[in-house]
UniProtKB/TrEMBL annotation:
This protein's record includes keyword Nuclease: no
Cofactor(s), names only, from the UniProt record: pyridoxal 5'-phosphate
Pfam families in the record: Ala_racemase_N (PF01168)
Chain positions with N6-(pyridoxal phosphate)lysine modification: K35
Protein name (record): Pyridoxal phosphate homeostasis protein
Sorted UniProt keywords: Pyridoxal phosphate
SUPFAM superfamilies on file: PLP-binding barrel
Amino acid sequence: MAIADNLTHILAKIADAARRAGRDPAPVRLVAVSKTMPAEAVEEAARAGQRLFGENYVQEFTAKAREVREPVEWHFIGHLQSNKVKYLAGLVTCIHSVDRLSLAEEIDRQWAKLDAVCDILVQVNIAGEETKSGTSAAELTDLVAAMATLPHVRVRGLMTMPPFFDDPEEARPYFRELRRLADAVAAEKIPGVSMAELSMGMSGDYEAAVEEGATLVRIGTALFGERVYRP
């Protein structure tokens, strides 16, 4: 199917999942994960109505952002090294993968140069997987409170990547736990902090994520097709 057809299909499934959970589908946004995809694919999706795109690799993203002519919004969703933050400043509206205070401090420094504020999501490694980034649930509230003191950063919610499962139902407890953690942080009423966004769910499990409260689902393969990784 063409990207436009895939987009229509995915948006319908997101809306259906939200309604099954008694939710308004409107606040649930699709982040089209365009890593390894050419600028032409981004523009094709944009012409079909998609406006929000997520990228994982800084060098690939900055080159692609210069090529895309359609009016789109970019989020950065991949693991981020502090020394690469400067290349994102002014190009992305939200960074999903902030997992440590030093990274938030560097985002704050770079956005200060623009006299602007960057929305961030705190990445939580709920499963405690050594191969994945993310703060622990035990450290989350203190980390959010420290980030909240930075004037050019705004904590807007949480992000997680559960372990990979063939059955999306097995990912559901991780989505449910992220929602619980967001509620716990919100209950602390930390000044300047919002838990409005939950970034969770990908091509194989986004319906379960929406049913558990996702507001941002990160979908690449189901929209663009299988990725081609170049050597």
